[in-house]
Write a structure and sequence with these properties.
The protein has four helices and twelve strands. The protein has 210 residues and is α/β, with parallel strands linked by helices. A seven-stranded mixed β-sheet has the order 3-2-1-6-9-11-12. Helix 2 runs parallel beside helix 3.
């Protein structure tokens, strides 16, 4: 297949590759990523003047998305508070196409409920979109990232609206398979560049890559 040229072509290719990923390999890589997110959180760790550790904004992988629930549990076992995204809804409880993500604390598997699109998310309490500014590390799902830090998501736009709310200088790290780090992706004006990428075999690397 020729190199994809549009975001739609890239998404079709990358999603097909993920669907073909053997479950055993996905599980092996997820174990490596669970250790990697803890190392990333330690590297980014900061303590407020009040002595309270800053939370980590993370995500709950689904399907063949890199990672697993073990990622979140490993962060909590390391003493970090974890915030997970909550899909915003409009007045009719339909997913909003214009709002940034809400955030809520992850307190173990029993704290999760099924939200829009069948995605699991914390039942509450919700801390609001501005909670991302409290984090000293934001771990972000993606389909790919390029060497400049351009991220390719699924196209809903929630992270495009949410990441500008993070505190300036906060590490924005996308979690991917090693083969999902590519040379160049299509870029648009609203795209927020990633500052790092975490993969199972190469660990945490700063972006842009030299």
């Amino acid at each position: 297949m020729n190199t994809p040229r549009t975001k739609a072509e890239w998404r079709a290719l990358l999603l097909a590759r993920r669907r073909a990923l053997p479950a055993e390999l996905h599980a092996t890589e997820a174990r490596s990523l669970a250790a990697g997110v803890v190392a990333s959180a330690r590297a980014a760790h900061s303590v407020t003047m009040g002595g309270t550790s800053s939370p980590v904004c993370c995500y709950l992988p689904f399907g063949r998305e890199p990672g697993s629930l073990a990622m979140l549990d490993a962060l909590r076992e390391a003493g970090r508070d974890v915030l997970l995204p909550v899909i915003p809804t409009d007045g009719a409880d339909a997913p909003s196409t214009t709002a940034p993500l809400d955030w809520a604390p992850y307190q173990g598997p029993s704290s999760l409920v099924t939200g829009p699109y069948g995605l699991r998310q914390p039942a509450g309490p919700h801390w609001g979109p501005a909670a991302i500014a409290m984090a000293d590390l934001v771990l972000i799902p993606a389909l790919a990232v390029d060497r400049r830090g351009v991220r390719l998501g699924r196209g809903a736009g929630w992270y495009d609206r949410s990441l500008p709310l993070a505190h300036p200088g906060t590490p924005l790290v996308t979690v991917l398979r090693d083969a999902e780090v590519v040379d160049a992706l299509p870029v648009e004006r609203h795209d927020v560049l990633m500052t790092g990428v975490l993969t199972p075999h190469c660990g945490l690397r700063p972006l842009p890559l030299s």
